Amino acid sequence: MILRICANPRLKLAKMIKVSSLCILLIALTAISAQNLTGYPTRDEVPDVNSPQVQAWLKEIDLTGVPAIAPYPPGDPTPVCPTAAVNANDCIRGCQSCNGDDLFECSAPNTWGVTFDDGPAPSTPALLDYLRTQKISASFFVMGSNVIMYPEILKREVADGHHLASHTWSHHALTTLTNAEIVAEMKWTEKAVFDITGLRLKYMRPPYGEINNRVRFVLKKLGYVVVDWTGDEFDTLDWQPIPESEKITRFTSSLDAYAASPRTKGFYCLEHDITPEGVLLAQKLVPLGIARNISFASVAGCEGAAGYQNSNATSSVPLPGTATATAGTGPSRSQSASGGSVTSIVTAKVPGAASHTGGAALGVASVFAALVASILLV
């Protein structure tokens, strides 16, 4: 349709000039949209390590000295623990309950480190609305596959003063992947977030909490800090198909035990914003913390550190009807979302934000074709 309109020989000179200008812009925008649609790996699949982009990333990383730990067999969904004797130096979180030097407690005293995994998702905006009413800043451990699907929700997370962190591209257990696959999972997610917000992620949470010293080595080479959650008692079980009342009762007991402790350090919870049920549960758990005079903070706020690798980056994420915000001073009951000296100011739109909706290029074409048609009728 575009070519038929643009190449119409019956146009008068004046109209031809107008149409030609629009056609050039249309073709350029269509090409940009197509590039965005095809520039990222398939959603929810481990990215191809033989792609030129991944190969370029691998050349930038020195993995000399990486522990010689073979990838574990995949399980359902977590990996199968090695049946042979495991070297204690492997420090496997799942099989050996070993945390290594991962962050698993919020460093701020009496503080609930608020984290949500797996988004962004259609259920996320309702959570953002609630967190805004409570003046709570959270860390969102986002999946690259969902970032390119819902870029506007990601922008709102930053605009509302929240902190972004990585949860890999496809949510496969990293201990089952090769070193190159780990790099691909992390770098594609990092690229997606950077393309949309201008922020380079610093913190990450491994899917299922599965990690060992080989994975830690690769992640450190990429500049990442690993964040777990503070034991099973602070897993809200929002992902489990059990009655909500049981989840609330169990978590209430965990908060009571914490409230009776010295509270010299805080804790990190495991929550998810991928389902409406998880979002609703979060809204019922937060008041339990408030009632016990517990403060709330993002991971960066908990640690009092910069939230991103490019700590002085300016993020450009305009949202219609959303007030300009500075992520480092966003709403919170305690620490700032971005932490430290991070300056993440919402100013102007980032060009070339990725889209994963199949109709993007078609939508651009339809709009401009309509404009061309209107000119022809003049």
From TrEMBL:
Region named Disordered: 317-339
Organism superkingdom: Eukaryota
Key words, A-Z: Hydrolase, Metal-binding
Residue spans of biased composition, Low complexity class: 321-330
Keyword Metal-binding: yes
InterPro entries xrefs: Glyco_hydro/deAcase_b/a-brl, NODB_dom, Polysacc_deacetylase_ArnD
UniProt keyword Metal-binding present: yes
Protein's name according to its UniProt entry: NodB homology domain-containing protein
Source lineage: Eukaryota, Fungi, Fungi incertae sedis, Mucoromycota, Mortierellomycotina
